[in-house]
Fold this sequence. Notes:
- The longest helix is centred in the C-terminal third of the chain and has 8 residues, at 71-78.
- 2% of the residues are buried.
- The chain is 9% helix and 29% strand.
- It is elongated, with a radius of gyration of 18 Å.
- It has one domain.
- A hairpin with a 5-residue loop joins strand 4 (53-58) and strand 5.
- It is mainly beta.
Amino acid sequence: xxxxxxxxxxxxxxxxxxxxxxxxxxxxxxxxxxxxxxxxxxxxxxxxxxxxxxxxxxxxxxxxxxxxxxxxxxxxxxxxxxxxx
Length: 85
Ligand SMILES: [Zn+2]
């Protein structure tokens, strides 16, 4: 909804930046953890990144888009994953 209109119905009545909530006290998030290196040292503290989500909701039809808040952190950790073949 970058242009401020709904891609489904074209309405400009967009409710932006709402935090996505989980259950009673839990917040929905994704978590990514650095994989173990080939020669894992005895003491190994993998880096990780976590992100919650913001929602933009069309007030006319309900279409919703999600935006990861910590997309930069997730991307940084994901680059530590070697491609599996
Ligand atoms: Zn809409």
